[in-house]
Specification:
Largest sheet: 5 strands, antiparallel
Radius of gyration: 30 Å
Helix content: 40-55%
Number of strands: 12
Strand order of the largest sheet: 1-2-3-5-4
Number of domains: 2
Distance between the termini: 31 Å
Shape: globular
CATH topology of the largest domain: Transferase(Phosphotransferase), domain 1
CATH architecture of the largest domain: Orthogonal Bundle
Structural class: alpha+beta
Strand content: 15-25%
């Protein structure tokens, strides 16, 4: 809409004389105009025709009035709103200053003190609005303007007004409420029942960009949350992340968490975390370090974690204590060489005695991104491959499938996680064999001799897919029942790993063929 129709400009001429267009966004064009009654310049925002056509004008103007109640030194107020010649518009003060976007284009990134100063003012405005029951829904550098050096938040509540007034019609127009790169995951997924944590996420994206020069471009994983580190950030950001300090890094992790329940509940909590004192650093002697490491190792063996760490994460942790990434990579290669005789899977406290890990896993990364159009194909492939019922959970471009019910008396604990980010899709398939191992090994205690061997062979070969009759015909006395059981378990684990690899490869093929 480069030029406003004469019918519209004539309809508002008694109040506003439009001079020129000064900006445009996804929902509206912005025009400099003279407020005739008060002899001052204002910014008139005119909703795009396709958007205005899908809205109920009366409802939209009602929602605008709610946003107009906000009165705060860092909120740009709404002066007026209305409908003219079929167009919906609203009026704000004209801020004769640059936006944060313009400043970032010029300076690339800000020093920590300047960025935190902007955060204090913008965060205070958001916190005030949240107490009034109003979310912004579109926090981004373009909506933060500077008036004589002071940051002001623009377009407060406009996204909510459009979303509320338009309802399902907005979805049909294909208009996104919010801005990609700054929207929270739940907002990007189309959830309209948002709360303050959605604005917290967007504010975290803005701070990240102010400090590092570009928006995060990713959601923080569970690994990041556990460590309080931005482990998913690009390598080019690592040096700057070290400069901003652990306090700010931990706060950013808490603001950028994938799931809302893991984020700061309020903007105030986020701001407090940014200013938290590190406190005195405890220094440990060599003997104390040895004792801490020894006890931590014992605790790890007794209570192993569900998930491991990536090499990148280990390198980041080591770098914090002065160990170069190159040394970590060399150590990892040596470790892998020692483990190459065993299946590359998660182990656990009992893996040595069982002869094979109790958790087997397979992971691969393929080019292309997951699309909702292939969700059903992936689920069908999983269930056909495993012959096991399961449940799915989706969030944005992420799909998780897990088993739910026992099959033929044996419970399979399989989980498949497929997630896309940055033009790639990561496929992780794993199965826990703990229950099967207990069942198999307990047979040692259920009777020995030929009967015990036959029982073990029957179960083991059944899990391997060998007909039971073949197992019984081949049953011979094996003096070491433990050795036999261990061998069978190892064979079962190897076959299941092969099955998981084949499933992962078929899912990869589906993603690749979809061209997402």
């Amino acid at each position: 809409m480069p030029d406003l129709p004469t019918a519209f400009t004539d309809a508002i001429r008694d109040r506003y004389v439009v001079e020129r267009e000064i900006g445009a966004g996804g929902m509206a064009t912005v025009h400099l105009a003279l407020d005739v009654r008060h002899n001052r310049h204002v910014a008139v925002k005119v909703l795009k025709p396709e958007l205005a056509a899908s809205l109920g004008a009366e409802r939209f103007l009602k929602e605008i009035k709610i946003a107009a109640r906000l009165t705060h030194p860092h909120v740009i107020p709404l002066h007026d709103s209305g409908q003219a010649a079929g167009f919906l518009y609203y009026v704000m003060p004209f801020i004769d200053g640059e936006s944060l976007r313009t400043r970032l284009r010029r300076e690339k990134r800000l020093d920590t003190a300047a960025a935190l100063g902007i955060m204090d003012d913008v965060g205070d405005a958001l916190s005030y609005a949240h107490r009034q029951g109003i979310l912004h829904r579109d926090i981004k550098p373009e909506n933060i303007l500077f008036s004589e050096g002071h940051p002001m938040v623009a377009d407060f509540g406009i996204a909510r007004a459009v979303s509320t007034a338009g309802g399902a019609n907005i979805t049909r127009t294909g208009l996104a409420i919010g801005t990609p790169g700054y929207m929270s995951p739940e907002q990007a997924a189309g959830d309209r029942d948002l709360d303050a944590r959605s604005d917290v996420y967007s504010l975290g994206c803005v701070l990240y960009e102010m400090l590092l020069g570009e928006p995060p471009g990713m959601w923080q994983t569970d690994e990041s949350l556990r460590l309080g580190m931005l482990t998913d950030s690009p390598e080019r950001h690592r040096a700057r992340i070290r400069e901003i300090g652990r306090t700010i890094e931990r706060a950013l992790v808490g603001a950028l968490a994938l799931r809302a329940r893991n984020r700061f509940e309020t903007v105030d909590a986020f701001l407090l975390a940014l200013r938290a004192e590190e406190g005195a650093v405890r220094r440990y002697s060599d003997s104390e370090v040895e004792e801490i490491v020894r006890q931590a190792a014992e605790e790890q063996v007794a209570h192993p974690t569900e998930e491991g760490m990536s090499l990148k994460t280990v390198q980041q942790i080591a770098d914090d204590v002065g160990i170069s990434p190159e040394r970590v990579e060399r150590a990892a290669r040596k470790l892998e060489a020692r483990k190459s005789v065993s299946p590359p899977a998660e182990s656990g406290p009992g893996a040595f005695w069982l002869g094979s890990p109790t958790v087997i896993a397979y992971e691969r990364v393929v080019a292309g991104e997951l699309t909702e159009a292939v969700y059903d194909d992936i689920v069908a492939e999983i269930q056909a491959s495993l012959s096991t019922p399961g449940e799915i959970d989706t969030l944005g471009r992420s799909l998780t499938w897990r088993t739910t019910k026992p099959v033929l008396g044996k419970r399979r604990a399989v989980q498949v996680h497929v997630t896309s980010r940055g033009g790639q899709t990561r496929i992780h398939v794993q199965e826990r064999l703990g229950e099967m191992a207990v069942t198999l090994y307990s047979s040692i205690l259920v009777g020995g001799g030929i009967g015990g061997v036959a029982t073990i062979l029957g179960m083991g070969l059944g899990w391997l897919g060998v007909p039971l009759e073949a197992g019984l015909l081949s049953a011979v006395w094996f003096p070491g029942m433990y050795a036999l059981t261990r061998a069978i378990y190892r064979g079962v684990a190897q076959k299941k790993r092969s099955d998981l690899e084949e499933l992962g490869d078929r899912i990869a093929a589906i993603v690749a063929e979809s061209g997402g």
